[in-house]
Write a structure and sequence with these properties.
The structure is a homotetramer of 336-residue chains.
Chain A (H helix, E strand, L loop, with lengths): L1 E6 L5 H10 L3 E7 L3 H10 L4 E3 L2 H6 L5 E4 L6 H10 L3 E5 L6 H14 L3 E4 L6 H11 L6 E11 L8 H16 L6 E7 L9 E7 L5 E7 L1 E13 L3 E5 L7 E10 L10 E10 L7 H14 L8 H19 L5 E2 L3
Parallel strand pairs in A: 1-2, 1-4, 2-3, 4-5, 5-6, 7-10
Antiparallel strand pairs in A: 7-11, 8-9, 8-15, 9-10, 11-12, 12-13, 13-14
Helix pairs in contact in A: 1-8, 4-5, 5-9, 7-9
């Protein structure tokens, strides 16, 4: 039984609380938030949980095994550091930290202390992404050639981070989870329509050593809501349309084959457009699996899907994209 | 009555022939193509037209007023130059030429000779784009803030040009037609999955002096066909979905207003999500209007919508995008 | 302040409880259900409410002003009768009763006692139906000529009622609410694929005195979920597609005009296909308005939208449809 | 080589002409139409064909082997009779005749003369219906339990026939082709909004001996165009959506299983909602296969898919539906 305390009961905290409360291997010992009205709300649902306005009460209780941090990203590093130093396992909301340096420091500290440090990239646990991962791993898709993501909406402008920090972690985590090879560089372009200079529209491209490109289209200012990822392999192509009620993943037996030939002047591309297959997806709440994975990483010592290396890489990519945005969209090298 | 000769009777030539044949102010005097079987096909439809395998016969006939060039892009410059030098008005298929230098040279020559030189960017004449142009011009949309285009498909790989040269002219011509301000720089990233190094997926971003961004997503290797343009103004946002059978243009009374305030730390964005309006569109074939516009530019001396300045700018933008692609996606300045 | 007791805490009861709990003019005094585990569930949410396994405790408490009955339909009559006899206002879940005779008896009793008796046809209160009602009332739609409803799904087979009793009340209530004129006859055809003979697919047609037809397609055995109503007027046509996330109601400036003419042999129909308008809808939970309407019917003496006459007519129509089903689809006359 | 003459060059005639012209086993000898302007149009496309205003010239030419009748339905019987009597094979446009009596008389005459008599139900030859037929024949779908068709549009009002005669032949022919068992009765309800009393909206139900129901929703007065057929089997369910550009047929591994049990009070239905499969369809023009089938019925003596028994049954069903419409929607027995 893992005794957990949740710090931050804002937008995502209630979902975390509900799932850890429902997990038979966890006990929801604390919920901390500096807003009394949030604690009052939680109090109606979890009569046995302790509520506090100060996270340190959670950190200082020796009975607490794990701390779940669901606060704004700027506070992640300090809170996670304190928790690790006090011997607690840590689950961090995405994005892991506000800088890659902080992420690496936390990873080192967790390793030194022998503690679990995990990031909640919930999308990795939903039925659609699990199915996509399977289709890539069992070589149904073949060698991946591109990854094209669009996540646009009339969204809430965040006051302290741009649209990439807000929306891209979802898609980057899926990319890193599904494609084993890592990107070698990042470029980004975008625009801010507010005085604070934070981009509300941004495009990001990732290059790979060979044969793969990944592109991300993120916007808070689209009149239509699109959440779509195309993944092209040399055997099959996938479309993951998260706005579809029931046909979220489609597998296209569609492709082209490039023939090697002495005579380069001729087009040597063979087309194929075949059946489409729409697999039934597991509709279990993704957060249920995520919370189980965190508990298992503590009790069973397994490596979680949404591990801290992936969490760090997500941060590093967005950080590099921001560097690109501030420097005339220049290409920023990664070093994974 | 304008006597016209069409050079090139491949994919697009038959549509041009049909429309100029049907135009009461034009006479379809010649069709030239170096493939006998193409001429035979045309012969069944236009019994009074002269068919020839050599374009020079068309150029050398003093009765011919105008030459319509629908051959592969690499041959545009030489054919158009010859026609202009022989005193013919010229209509060029898009893209206008293979280089911006050639485009400028043709424009100079046409001006010197006092001849019409027009480029067939057919999209400018369809009901959807005409409606969009109206909505922008009458200030329904307000100040434009972004233009986001996706044109992807499982398309035919072209043997001599990359996907931008093939697909982007449509969207760039719409952009230049709809937004008066001109872009100041181009950046592009992409990937080639063929030995010839020609990109089959490419992304292109255009920057403007202030407040506008334009982005283009072009691919020959998508399992789904998407042809969608989002145009965001500060009063309304438009979606032009060319794959919709009957609701191609939607006008969203959707937006956000950024308030100026002393305290920059607060978010000062006001949202609005209102009614949607789906205007009925003129479904007349776009090519009919285009052919009328060309004839009017000759007989009535009017400036056509799809004029040669716009044609040149389209070429220059793609040329700069290609330069960006060959140079690590660096930003290439335009000088319009 | 109206003190209410809810009888039945199954599928719909929790939604009723939440809305009456949140209503500032109501007090949720009782929840009754004969299943302890349901009461336990409710107990976590409403600490001040009294829970009981017997509805009679609710009925017998002189402090209770109103009883809300959310039990299976076969028990509606007896429970509502007892409540009315004991001087309580009554809100019944749809369908009102298992027979029209029972519905009329309850209406008489309520009138005699001077008590409110209302039926919860929730659909009448949602933003889409309210908008449709407005568009019909302000004569935007013109004279209504047809009403065509499809409500099909892979649905739960009910053990004691056929698919019409389960699904059609929604659509019939919308019909009766939107069109003032009442139908004069019912016909129905259907099929049962189970041993109990209860139809899992059924079609129902309603005839009117002149110029209107209404048709309903109901199924528990469709692989796709469709919830669509077409309403045709002589000025505009409406489509209400409840499966659309955000564009549920579309108003088509589409129609045909029939011209009277001496010569009947010619077709005298003029077509029109114009703009489409997608109004923004009020997204407030329908049940909130319904609960307010019930409270207002008690405290303010107003006639609720979802009144008992409409509730009775819904029951009578389905009852007649069932009679038609049992008699070779013969036409059954109504007498509204 | 079959020498054919086409009688009627209106809406469908040009498509027939093009396909028989392109058929290597046919020669398009005649096109007859009483409108000179129609013949002129045809003359541009088929320089070797003989054009005439009188069908009798076609009938009387001993060189003509087969006559294709694409005139309004009221003239089908007389023209076909004359052709058969003069020893010509006959292909009739759908619907075969204006009455079932006429259809039977023609079938008898053709048999007596040993001539081919076929009806052009083109839909039977398109890729979607061919695939559906395969999926039913190879028992993928299992025992069929229902057939539900919707064919609605803002359509042209026909001056002499109601909406069933205009639209339902497509769907009835598919039904009869796909399901071997024949219906035993017909019922129909509808409404006319024109003075001529011809229904512009009509619903039709077909009953079977056991376990199957078929229903048709036909309208010329819908603001949206829907062409959808649901076919439910006990193993799979099919959706044929003809408005989809590329995913016209979807195969749902969705169903329910009814268990026989002593205790009839319990629900004994097991649900299943599995993968969806979207087969690639043959996109060859259906009319090409249809014309080949007619020629093969003459030269090779094979029974065509769209044979005259099916053609007769389609007519008989609509005739019975009209009888039902004229008699208060009463059930009309069929006798196939």
């Amino acid at each position: 039984m893992v005794k957990v305390g949740i710090i931050g009961y804002g937008y995502w905290g209630p979902n975390l609380a509900r799932n850890f409360f429902g997990n038979p291997r966890a006990e929801l010992k604390y919920i901390a938030d500096n807003r009394q009205e949030r604690l009052k709300l939680a109090g109606q649902l979890y009569p046995k949980t302790v509520f506090t306005e100060t996270p340190h009460q959670v950190m200082n209780d020796p009975e607490v095994d794990a701390v779940i941090i669901a606060t704004p990203v700027f506070s992640h590093y300090e809170l996670a550091k304190e928790a690790l130093q006090k011997g607690k396992h840590v689950l961090l909301e995405k994005p892991m930290t506000a800088s890659s340096k902080d992420a690496l420091a936390l990873i080192d500290l967790a390793e030194e202390k022998g503690l679990s440090l995990m990031v909640d990239h919930t999308f990795l646990y939903n039925g659609a992404v699990r199915k996509i991962k399977d289709l890539v791993e069992d070589n149904t898709v073949g060698n991946i050639q591109y990854f094209d993501s669009t996540r646009i909406n009339l969204g809430l402008f965040q006051p302290d981070i741009n649209v990439l920090w807000d929306l891209a972690p979802h898609d980057i985590s899926i990319l890193l989870h599904v494609i084993e090879e890592k990107p070698i560089s990042v470029q980004s372009t975008g625009i801010s329509h507010t005085d604070n200079g934070l981009e509300n529209i941004a495009y990001m491209s990732l290059k790979y050593k060979d044969g793969i490109i990944a592109h991300f289209n993120c916007s808070w200012t689209s009149p239509v809501k699109i959440r779509m990822i195309l993944i092209g392999g040399d055997k099959k192509m996938l479309v993951y349309n998260d706005m579809e009620a029931s046909e979220k993943v489609k597998v296209y037996d569609t492709g082209y084959e490039v023939k090697s030939d002495a005579d380069k002047q001729k087009i040597l591309v063979d087309y194929r457009a075949g059946d489409i297959y729409v697999p039934k997806l597991d509709t279990t709440e993704a957060l249920k699996y995520m919370s189980e994975d965190f508990i298992a990483s503590i009790l069973d010592g397994i490596q979680p899907l949404s591990n801290n290396t992936l969490g760090y890489q997500v941060v590093r990519i967005i950080e590099a994209a921001e560097e690109s945005l501030r420097n005339g969209s220049k290409e920023i090298l990664l070093n994974f």
